Description:
Number of helices: 5
Largest sheet: 6 strands, antiparallel
Structural class: alpha+beta
Shape: elongated
Order of helices and strands: HEHEEEHEEEEEHEEEH
Number of strands: 12
Radius of gyration: 24 Å
Helix content: 25-40%
Strand content: over 45%
Amino acid sequence: xxxxxxVAASATALLILGGLLGVQQYISSQITSGVEREMPKASGISxxxxxxxxxxxxTSDSIKSVHINIESFALKENGTETSLDxxxxxxxxxxxxxxxxxxxxxxxxxxxxxxxxxxxxVQIVGNTLQVSTGADGLGTASLIPKHSDSKIYFELxxxxxxxxxxxxxxxxxxxxxxxxxxxxxxxxxPNGLKIESxxxxxxxxxxxxxxxxxxxxxxxxxx
Length: 223
């Protein structure tokens, strides 16, 4: 008798688990469809919803949290191909869909950064953009990414020639301004989002943005 109860309980648990997994997949597919609708330029979309949140997502009027990865997305401003990493929480089910907390990381590929930097003989080394300068490329300028409002640019961190390093503070201010103006990129940010940080790596230039109470439809139409 005890064995039958255990078997029945196990079967019931498996049915419940299977049902929750089905709901999890359904929620993910619905979010994927919404992303495709609001961001038609996006491809390679993957959505994940924490299994622990599934029951709460069913009973409440909002989705607790979701993570979205987009392999390819063309920016509205200039058509630059990027990848997007999106983390959202407290997403209302009612229209218009509002996201309580949103974090978006836009990554521009390293090859694009090198080609569009405006400098010759450029390579990414660590978290810096290194530019060969001077006769026969004997000098090397190390640039780091910076941001101001919705603008991204590179700033001279240091300069070296024949192995001797010169700090940026020792160089003319006009040189910094020239580099900034030459490398500056303007982004159109969705309402409510602000740039938190910019970083450079072998993957490219990553721009991290965040905001609260964002209307989901604004994300696709503004980026």
